[in-house]
Amino acid sequence: MVRPTDSVESTSPMTEQNAATRSPHVAFVLGGGGRWGAVEVGMLRALVNAGILPDLIVGASIGAFNGAVFAADPTSSGIETLDRLWAEVATSDLLGANVIDRVRSAARLRVAIQDPQPLRDMLEHTLSARTFDELAVEFQCVGASIERAAEHWFSEGSLIDALLASSAVPTLFPPVEIDGEHFYDGGLVNSVPVDRAVDLGATEIYVLQVGRLEQPLRAPTKFYEPALLAFEIARRHRFGSIRDRIPPGVEVHILPSANDVEFDDRRQLKWSDLGETGTLVEDAYNASTMYLEELSTQS
User: Fold this and answer.
1) What is the pLDDT of residues 119-155, one digit of tens each?
2) How far is it, in rounded angstroms, from Cα 144 to Cα 165?
């Protein structure tokens, strides 16, 4: 079993292309994970402080949000922007609308309880870039196509539309329509998209994940657990399959989140509770800093 702090190098080719001859070389992969995506802010700070910068960023769900903000400004200043963004969300009612508001939204939207407009407004206020081409670093994010039942990678056009599509959690948010096609959260099809980074030519990959990849699962015992368990099985199987097919010449570093969240933890259902944000950022920063320091001594 690969622990979050392990590096991975496999001999099973994922593509026919020789990884050693491709570019970009360094990629950051930011996985999904809702409110626990705050750990990625700490990981990004650790990477920047270690002098590790990406040629490519790929993200899913909340990882797409974090990745796009950083891709617009891949510096310490960009990290500060993310810090402020998470702090503002944690102290606002952006995701904590009262019951009456949710009932009204559900009646109007029919398939969701949360209006996505506040998220759109937040992104428009935060992001200076409006299209992928305006970003300082190449960036892509994934969404789940409803019509095709397949993953779809956004790499051009409206950045904000793509981010909303990549983070449209079913039932929480309505699907996002882009060019006549409807999309749900990209985490449904590729929660930790390491394979996309490989396919785009990365030879050194840093995985920013929210935890839970290594903790053992067990059969459900409470009424709310089966759905959580089903998603965990799917996301871990996909990541495990990708990990086992990393091509020769590609190094994958899984940064530690220091976020010990059991799959059946009720906190997973409290998607709007961001009270732990500061702790998540700091703990992930400390753990990732230590990991990167150890990594540098081995090279």
Assistant:
1) 899 899 999 899 999 999 999 999 999 999 999 999 9
2) 8
**Cβ contacts of 19 within 8 Å, gap of 6 or more:** 198, 201, 203, 247, 248, 249, 250
Beta strands in 55-110 (DSSP E): 56-60
DSSP string for 185-218: EGGGT-SS-HHHHHHTT-SEEEEE--S-SSSPP-
**What are residue 143's phi and psi, to 5 degrees?**
-130, 165
Element (DSSP H or E) covering residue 251? strand 251-254
Whole-number Å distance between alpha carbons of 192 and 208: 8
Q: Give the residue among 116, 97, 96 at the shortest CA–CA distance from 161.
A: 116
For residues 288 and 259, is the Cβ–Cβ distance under 8 A? no
- Residue 9: DSSP 8-state: -
The CA distance from 266 to 57, in Å, is: 31
